[in-house]
Structure formats: structure tokens, C-alpha cells
Amino acid sequence: MVVAAENVLGVGLYSIEEVALYARVSRKLANRWFFGTNDGNAAISPQLIDGKFISFLDFVQMTAIREIRQKKGADRVPLEKIRQLLAIAHEQGVTHPFARENVTFRWHNELGLALPDGRLIEASGKHRRAVYLKEIVMLYKGDLGYDSEGLANLYHAWRWEGCAVDMNPHVRFGEPFLPSCGYSAQSLWEAATDEGNVEAAARAYGVEKKEVEAACRYFDMLQGKAA
Which of the 8 DSSP states describes residue 165? Predict the structure, then answer.
């Protein structure tokens, strides 16, 4: 199904395969979290309802969930507790909580939610909705940029030798790109393959060698660490 361009400008647009690659999870896991399976409900309700497409904010939420679920043992956060937080956030009128600045928190294997009125409540476990007053730990810090309303509008996907690969829903529908030259990371990565080496690709695109190298290293990282 085709999604009208005017509906996704500034929103970002990814296929399930792309979001799995960029978030470094398996396609099966991404599909389960967004669309559910016969064995369980989805964890995240996609922002875009026209076909199976994922928005930038949903991608950011997935990277946050991936991060908090990486811990093993007693501190591992079950997916059901992710669902509990998202349900309470919806109840409180907080959209995309994992993509907001200083809104979602974790202590051990429980999750907390900062509400617009300033209260911090428990959002998972048997004490859901209780006001939480103890010391807390923020889930994630340095990889996101936020707009004036505290909602994520930039994801710093990769850095190498001073070259950045960013994802911005207002640029190329959220496709990873190098702000230093404006080209997509995939274009430079494919050029290195097509031209035979990094140097030839840099000449063909009129960019610095390190920019092509950064794009190549970024895609090598994605492919090497996809779960």
C-alpha cells in the first residue's frame, strides 16, 4: 500500500526491514513488537496506519526498548512491562513516551513515567500508578536531539573520525545521511561497492574519503550486529 507523501513529511518512513536494520534487531523481532504475532500482542502501536510502515518516533521508541531489554538476569525488563508503561502513558495522554526527553525511567527491572503535572509514577509491576519518590536512573541520554516540546527529532546513529551519520525525519524521510555532505549513507556505501573502493567512490561523489569510509563502517556495523 502506498502512503501519501504529504502524510509523512517530517514524520519519517521506514519499512519493517529498514527499521530492523537501523535498530539492530531481527526482522522477526521488529515485526513482533510493532504488529504482534499469534503468540502475543504488539508492544508499540505504529504511528502510521496506512500499511506496514514505521515512523521516526516509533523507530526511536524501538531503539529505547532494545536498550532497556539488553540487561540480563534479574534486571531484565519483560516485554509485558513495556506494554504496561505504554498503556499508562496512553491513559495519561502522553504519546511516544520512549521518544520524549526525561519522560521514561528505569530502576532495576521496573519502569517509571514522568507526567506533565510533574509527578513520577511507577508504570510497571504491581504498584503501577503509584507515585515514585526514590532515586531513579534515566534510560538513555546522548544519542537523541529534541525539539522545543521535548520530542525526539534527531537520532545520532554513528560517529567516525569526526564524520556523523544522522537520522532526521525532516531529511530524506528519516533515511540515515551524512550532514557534512548531504548524501545518504547507503548511497556512499553502495558507491564504494560499485566503484571498487572508497577512494574511487569519494571522487565520483565529490566528497571526502573519510565520509565514504564513515558510511561504509556504519553499514558494516549494522550488518555485523543485527540480531
Answer: E
